[in-house]
Amino acid sequence: MTDTTEGTDAQDRLSPLHDEHVALGAALTSFGGWQMPLRYGSDIAEHTAVRAAAGLFDLSHMGEIEVSGPQAAAALDHALVGNLTAVTPGRARYTMICAEDGSVLDDLVVYRKADDVFMVVANAGNAPLVTRELDARAEGFDATVTDQAAETALVAVQGPRAAEIVVGLTAADDVPAVRDMKYYAGAPASVAGIDAFVARTGYTGEDGFELFVDAAQAPALWRAVLAAGTPLGLVPAGLSARDSLRLEAGMPLYGHELDATLTPYAAGLGRVVKLDKTDADGAPLPFVGRAALEARKASDPARVLVGLRGAGRRPARAGYDVLVPGMEFPLGRVTSGVPSPTLGYPIAMAYVTPEISAEGTQVEVDVRGRREPFVVVALPFYTRT
């Protein structure tokens, strides 16, 4: 079977699961320097399967960076805006790496695998930059930064039946650790006879697991999960479904809701900035971007990230202008937008000026020359029960 490509680049890297995607007839697209599956069949069917049962995702394009050594935690406290020293082994933390001016270089998930071993997971397109920055910022600390992306594959199982599927494939001795795992936690386990680092995180708004394995073992793991999950409603799902799922869950995507022109405060994610980090003597702990972020926290934002619910059928898309009825000058811009398969109406996220950011505010979005009615709503749009 030949692969179907949609905007792929000959220079794109191939996932360790590329042949699996081709065999399943996936439409492939260029994403973050990788050729990845956009869809296998119907975007809506894949989205709905994740909400109702489970979806199987290839996330091998993400970057995995190990930071290890006696001062690994201290190095990360200096490099990132979060307090990584406070993360206990076996737990994870959502955080960001910022420039000196406080702008977001990438949003990250950091797993503490042991006292002196952390795994930093970066977005695909930003992974080389994050690796370079971590390496530079670790200078002077007894810590080593190692790019492990080339030898690591990442498979995610997301949906209400994810635990049933993954636990069913887990070796008996490891079942309690996986079955009872808390959200934003991780542990080593044998899944389908393959050594994995299993994490209970995700990007869909559903329960789910992410399985980090040696790249050479990824195809066998993928096939095992697919075989075990298919009778329970699991389907392989591509980037399109992942995007609509994360948007319903109100989760930001770098390059859309986050970029190097924004601070965490502008994105409504100031909670990840830990200005209360202190050193061993109780003094404020310096970290890259601290001074700029302290100043930004004290100032009023020029724009606010909000949710938008469409009153009609035409969806807003990234880059569309947000306006106020009766006015021609835009007061905001859409960052992401889709017709919501779960909710049945268009949804979007947008940055708007503070005066139109209150819930219930009636706005319009310029959808290819036609002004469509939307209303400002709270995020997320969807929360699992």
TrEMBL record:
EC class name: transferase
Domain of life: Bacteria
Stretches assigned to the GCVT N-terminal domain: 17-277
Reactions accelerated catalytically: N(6)-[(R)-S(8)-aminomethyldihydrolipoyl]-L-lysyl-[protein] + (6S)-5,6,7,8-tetrahydrofolate = N(6)-[(R)-dihydrolipoyl]-L-lysyl-[protein] + (6R)-5,10-methylene-5,6,7,8-tetrahydrofolate + NH4(+)
Any single Gene Ontology cellular-component annotation: cytosol
Alphabetical GO biological process terms: glycine decarboxylation via glycine cleavage system; methylation
Gene Ontology MF term list: aminomethyltransferase activity; methyltransferase activity; transaminase activity
Protein EC: 2.1.2.10
UniProt keywords, alphabetically: Aminotransferase, Methyltransferase, Transferase
InterPro entries the record matches: GcvT, GcvT/YgfZ/DmdA, GcvT/YgfZ_C, GcvT_bac, GcvT_C, GCVT_N, TrmE/GcvT-like
Domain Aminomethyltransferase C-terminal, first and last residues per copy: 303-382
Binding-site positions, substrate: E210
SUPFAM superfamilies linked: Aminomethyltransferase beta-barrel domain (SSF101790), Folate-binding domain (SSF103025)
Role description: The glycine cleavage system catalyzes the degradation of glycine.
Protein family membership: Belongs to the GcvT family.
Subunit structure, interactors included: The glycine cleavage system is composed of four proteins: P, T, L and H.
Name assigned to this protein: Aminomethyltransferase
Gene: gcvT
